[in-house]
Amino acid sequence: MTAHLLEPPTTASAQWGQSLAKGGLATALLHIERAATCRGSWETAHEWISTCVSQPVNSFAGASVFYGAPAVAHVLHLATIHGPRAYHQPRMGLNSAVEHVVEQRLVAAHRRIDCGIRPAFGEFDLLGGLTGLGAHLRVRGRQELLREVLAYLVRLTEPVQGRSGWWTHLAPSGEQDDRYPGGHGNFGIAHGIPGPLALLSLTYLDGTRVPGQLEAIERILDWLDAWQQNGAARAWWPEALTATEADQGETRQSKPLRPSWCYGTPGIATALHHAARATGDTDRARTAEAAFLDALEDPDQAHSLTDHTVCHGTAGVRLAARRFAERTDHATALRILAAASNLPDPGADATGQGLLEGAAGIALARCSLAAETPGTGWDALLLLV
């Protein structure tokens, strides 16, 4: 483990301490996971938690499961459930703050839909939007508010101005861009519609259901089916779609790109597999399994993995493969695990401490991959389980 993951700093800014994506909160989560799997001490985990919450917790309306009150609440929830210390007092105030954030964002999202305006993907996506907040509520067991999030996601799938309801007016960067004059449709589980698909499907499997949920799942599946590409790889999807491509019915992307969790086939196939189980579609499950396998076994795709991070590197892909294999038959699972084992080992060659692109995320994935006992289930935030 790299040195900057061992000892917490003596002082920490709120921006650093309350960020799962890029900051120290991911390292606190790492030490919670290590303690829960008997690889570390709860005292070390408590030191990191204390450092990360030493400043007032940010509960602004744009807070997400990867930054601010929801991120801190999620980490404290896992520490309380799995550890010897109780963080009930700070959790009580944080839970109320999180619920207020979710309610504010739901009001804004429904108002936007009522006005017939296309969304920014930060409204609905996994990393910064209501899908990620829903993933937190699912883990926390806050079903009433989770159902409100699901009801919003059902509305999200209804068409807006002649395109799918999740079609954003922005570029994949989240900004206006002349290369995307009509916005884009996003296929990544991190920022696109596979994230909502995964949450809708997993909650349906859990028994947390709202009117129109299956119909919303089917609308998303219809769109993914329409843009499924078949070639040397049995199934793959573009990373993003321009308005021109959508109008012409053809993507300019000629082959699958790197097989990452965030934008590549492993993330999309994971969401599809959840949906196949929710709808009882065995043919779709086989398609998802074949796509996942191709992403791992195709040398061109495997060699395009250039780092070890969770978001777009081998740590995320290997962890996704482990969770995917746990849901398949024995023969398929063995093949997926064998192919994943041929990928480069997720070492610790990342800068920063974040979960998504930092050393803490890599260490978390390695810990989960090596654990012989159940951990905290932290990767439910990635909608892998």
TrEMBL record:
Q: Which Pfam families match?
A: LANC_like
Supply the name of the protein. Answer: Lanthionine synthetase-like protein
Top-level taxon of the source organism: Bacteria
Q: Which Gene3D superfamilies match?
A: 1.50.10.20
Which source organism does the UniProt entry give?
Kitasatospora saccharophila
InterPro entries the record matches:
LanC, LANC-like
